[in-house]
Amino acid sequence: MRKKGSPLGSSSSTEERFHVGRLGRPHGLDGFLGIYLEEEDLSLLDPGSIVYLDDRPHTVAATRRGDKGYQILFVGVSDRGAAEQIRGLEVFVAERRSLEPDEYWPEDLIGLEVRPGGGSVAEVAHGPSQARLVIEREGTRFEIPFVADLVPVVDIGEGYVEIVELPGLIEPSS
Questions:
Q1: What backbone torsions phi and psi does residue 160 show, to the nearest 5 degrees?
Q2: CATH hierarchy code of domain 6-93
Q3: pLDDT digits over 61-72, tens only?
Q4: Which of 128, 31, 125 is nearest to 78 (CA)?
Q5: Which of 21, 60, 92, 111 has the fewest CB atoms found within 10 Å of its own CB?
Q6: By C-alpha distance, which of 166, 158, 149 is closest to 114?
Q7: Whole-structure pTM value
Q8: Positive or negative torsion for Cα 139, 126, 100, 90
Q9: pLDDT (tens digit, 9 = 90+) per residue, 86-96?
């Protein structure tokens, strides 16, 4: 996958915060929750790290690999009931990680011109296997997996992305 993470500002604080994941369901009785995140962002959640849930700071107590991804435990969340109280919350951090080559922040892609065929990048949709560019063209939208074979050129400086238009791929999304 070429795009990782997504930044969002905090609504009640002047400090900028960056979205790294979302809390899933509790696992077990000890307060661990599933967490949906890009694996590259896992280093931001080392024990002792501070993250923000609903603008409230929480300290990471532990992370572990689960059957289908990762699980996280916070200081002060010591049982399943406490974990249920924060289930579904978005996870933010105060600092971003460094990008690897050919990685982009979503806000840098929004609004880029699409070549060939015209249109622009309306949003970046995140999925379990890869991110997708949501392209808006002549009043319709369609999605392109954000992989090098289908999006061979991203030129932020010149303001465009180049896509490979395969038959059946460029279909409006519902």
A1: -150, 160
A2: 2.40.30.60
A3: 999 998 888 999
A4: 31
A5: 111
A6: 158
A7: 0.62
A8: positive
A9: 999 999 999 88
